[in-house]
Write a structure and sequence with these properties.
CATH class of the largest domain in chain B: Alpha Beta
Structural class of chain B: alpha+beta
Mean pLDDT of chain A: 91
Helix content of chain B: 40-55%
Number of domains of chain B: 5
CATH architecture of the largest domain in chain B: 2-Layer Sandwich
Number of strands of chain B: 22
Number of domains of chain A: 1
CATH topology of the largest domain in chain B: Heat Shock Protein 90
Largest sheet of chain B: 6 strands, mixed
Radius of gyration of chain A: 12 Å
Low-confidence stretches of chain A: none
Strand content of chain B: 15-25%
Number of helices of chain B: 19
Largest interface: A-B, 53 and 51 residues
Low-confidence stretches of chain B: 130-158, 240-263, 462-474
Shape of chain A: globular
Distance between the termini of chain B: 60 Å
CATH topology of chain A: Rossmann fold
Oligomer: heterodimer
Order of helices and strands of chain A: EHEHEHEHEH
Distance between the termini of chain A: 15 Å
Strand order of the largest sheet of chain B: 14-18-19-17-16-15
Chain lengths: ~120, ~650
Amino acid sequence: MSHSVLVCDDAIFMRTMISDILAQAGFEIVGEAETGAQAVEKYRQLKPDLVTMDIVMPDMGGIDAVREIVKNDPDAKILMCSAMGQQALVVEAIQAGAKDFVVKPFQPSRVLEAVQRVLG
Amino acid sequence: MDLSQYADLFLAESREHVSACNHLLLDWERTPASAEPVSGIFRAVHTVKGMAATMGYARVADLAHRMENLLDRLRKTKGAPGGDLLQLLFRATDLLERSIGLAVAGREKDLDVATLGAELDAAAKRWGAPTGRAGRASRARVSASVPQAPPVEDSATGGRLVSITLRADAALKGGRALLVLRRAQALGAISHLSPPEQAFGAEDFDGHFSFRLDTATPAAAVERALSGAGDVESVSVVEQEAAATARAAEGAAAIVGATAERSRHIRVDLRRLDALMDLIGELVTARGRLNQLAAERRDPAVDDVAIQVSRLTGELQAEIIQARMTPVWQVFDRYPRQVRDLARQLDKQVALRVEGKEIELDRTILDELGDPLVHLLRNAVDHGIETPAERKRRGKPAEGEIVLGAVRERASVAISIADDGRGLDRRRILEKAKQEGLVDAGVETLTDDQLLRVIARPGFSTTEAVTSVSGRGVGLDVAMSKIRALGGTIEVQSEPGRGTTFVMRLPVTLAIVRALIADVGGERYALPLTYVSETVEFGAVPSTTVEGREAMVLRNRVVPLVHLRELLSTGGGTPSARRPVVVLQMGERRTGVVVDGMLGQQEIVVKGFDAPQGTLPVFSGATIMGDGVPALILDAGGLV
């Protein structure tokens, strides 16, 4: 059975790219979210196996969304999508409960490695 | 991975973000104390940076990075920006937009971001200390790669000293270190972490760290578990006990192929939609021919097919037209910034308010609308809105307002530009009109309609009104003919001291319109139904003469008449006495057009029409009739 994924990023470009990378590797993209608030709501509805989460998003950022999701589901598997230079934010996200992170610009192989680690 | 397939998406989305930046900068300029604009700009620039880096557009990403840097500090210091700083950000946004275009065009080399980049860096330096310095003090300890705390714990606790080195090229080493730590914590208790966890958040964390791990798990298994966190160069576990059984490594999860459900929206190249529209146009023409043939054959089977084809074509056409509909904000969104820049240049204060952003128009009409709108907005800023001093003298707020609005009407969309400025100078315009012989010397006042006709004459301008930016009248004729070419109309209302409003009415869609087909001297002409208010029989209503022009009296209103036979100088036999009059209405104005006969209504495909020199300015285009013979489309704007 393929794993279901919720892709959260405020840029369609990024969502498309992550979705493409994961879909080509056989994952099922079950939903997309543009804001942290949407991510929390869609997580509740869709219960995906994996969430990819951008850090900087309007209307509740990615880190707050991680906190919110993990509060309700401590086993949530969340992969942060970070830009270079966001060390402090990534650390904060992991402290909040994110399971791993990838750094933009994405290399498909690295994204898939991280996904494998998260899904363990 | 082939990135070129994402270039269009990158371009489209980046432009949206740049547009958002412009809007937010304007907001910020207006309310410098507000914290929201800078956060929004930061997010937009940050997103562009991420996308550009992914596309491999290094210079774009670099510029965005420098902007982001500055914005981050501004965001954190919560300082109100000065004019210079805003100007710098405006310029940076412009350069970002240009660089995005160049990068996608494959000409990133031509881009010079160094100069402005240096300015951004300098500004960032002025605005507070760089972020991420909190961990600086820990550097010495970290690079030593030995625990800062003395290893007093004895092995009786089962604690083992674990030292980790992350790969030199690993990104965000602090985050990675924390992940390694989380894995270790799953195996047992951790103590004596060096450097402390807070240091992981610092930019200069170098990827070496160590801790004591109290676990019964064999060293080899610890090594394996921690190495699995990603980007780990080496793990050393110092202990006495021998390695025990190895745990099975994580098996790669079997991944089966599945069709992923994707977003319900896709982006389509506009040229595809244009091509589709052209094809539908051909299809509509062919349908007309089919209907005509079916009518001649009187064969029920052929009739059935013709009806079915008609229906399907109609539905297809409606779908395509809908797909081409674009909300006006896609064009309107760039104006607040342009108006601001222009106002600055003229030392005026002007706010542009946009209303009805979601109203939709055909993409082609919307694109063509850009120039006329810019022209009218320029005029409004330059001539409409007074200087702050003059406004104060007149008891108005120093900041003038221009409202750009879109409203859906029956089959058209009305777009208005209303300023609260000084209004058109009727006296001066009347004087000028008299001088040029545009109106009789005896005329006392100009109506709004006459006003428009006068100021829209090519080259018309009152001497006082000419500046480097725009001259009222200069180019208004160009804007008007553009609107007319789109099948639209333009009206003006102006009140001294209160402002001027231009209203443009445009068909919602351009390519296919319903039209009345009229016969004049044996030729067919199409009259778009949008502007036909009714038809009456010539001679059945009382006629009169107004200012030497023939007119009829329709429900107590005088409607001037135009005989198309005379206007078009067509031949043909004597027309019958009973002829129809098509009443065209445009805003408040009406004109009766006398034709020889009516041939019915049908949908016509509007084709562009380059009128030869000397053609009467009463045609807006041409169409091909069902029998393959072309017919000219009469321009209501030229007749009314």
